Amino acid sequence: MARTVTARTAAWRRRQAGVTLVELLVAMVIMTVITTMIIGGWIALQSSYANSVNQNDARSSARYALNFASAEIRDAQPQTVTTPPQSPITVAQPMEIDYYSSYDQPGTAADGTGTANLRLTRIYLNTTTGTLYWQRDTNGSGTWGSGDRTIVLATNVVNNTTANPNVTPAAAYTALFTYGYLDSNGNYTSADTVATANLAAIVSVTVHVLVGAQRGHAIVPADLQITVAPRNAPNG
């Protein structure tokens, strides 16, 4: 009889055997570690993808701004024909260039010249917002106003007049425009600012665009530049 009870007890115990609390805790810890690794990998993948998209967008934005600016500057022309010839450029500063142009406007000749719709135009950078603009004196007033046609060429532009700690590596001052001109001795030199009296001596303009994927954060910007010779410059 005792053997029968013992056998029944053993069988009952076998039927009741299961996962202990320690085993359950170990399984939970393992599952937590695996889940954390999966989530961490997914987040890293998403971040890498977002960075790639942002960098590609920055590069495309910089390329568009560069192409637009170079085409405009190349076909700039003087407001009037005089002797000696005038410069098509009226303002030559590090973050702004003003010039007369009828480029890509109705009535313009195939070579980009012609007086139809010739208007004062400028490309300038708002260094506070990092926005690069193209603006045209639509009404021909000779001044800039809220009614003038304005186009955003690029955002997150990190060119600045001071060292920019948000650029990796930390970049010193980088002018958006640098001008090559002939000095009084006929020697070629360059500067980021040209006085009004020397505008007619400009023979080239270098456009250097730095566009970051995210302004205000440490970034490696898309860095593009091109040197353009205004075809209608007096010494061009």
Secondary-structure-based class equals alpha+beta
**Helix count, DSSP H or I runs of 4 or more residues:** 2
Average pLDDT, rounded to a whole number, is 79
Q: Strand content of the residues, in percent? A: 15-25%
The largest β sheet comes out as: 5 strands, antiparallel
Parts with pLDDT < 50 across at least 5 consecutive residues: none
The H-and-E topology, N to C, reads as: HHEEEEEEEEE
Percentage of residues assigned to helices: 25-40%
Strands, count? 9
In one word, what is the shape? rod-shaped
Describe this structure in a few short sentences:
With 236 residues, the protein is an alpha+beta fold.
Overview of the molecule:
A five-stranded antiparallel sheet has the order 1-2-3-4-5, covered by helices on one side. A four-stranded antiparallel sheet has the order 7-6-8-9. The N and C termini lie far apart (119 Å). Helices cover 29% and strands 25% of the residues. Strand 6 (177-182) and strand 7 form a beta hairpin. It has two helices and nine strands. The protein has one domain (58-228). By secondary structure, it is of the alpha+beta class.
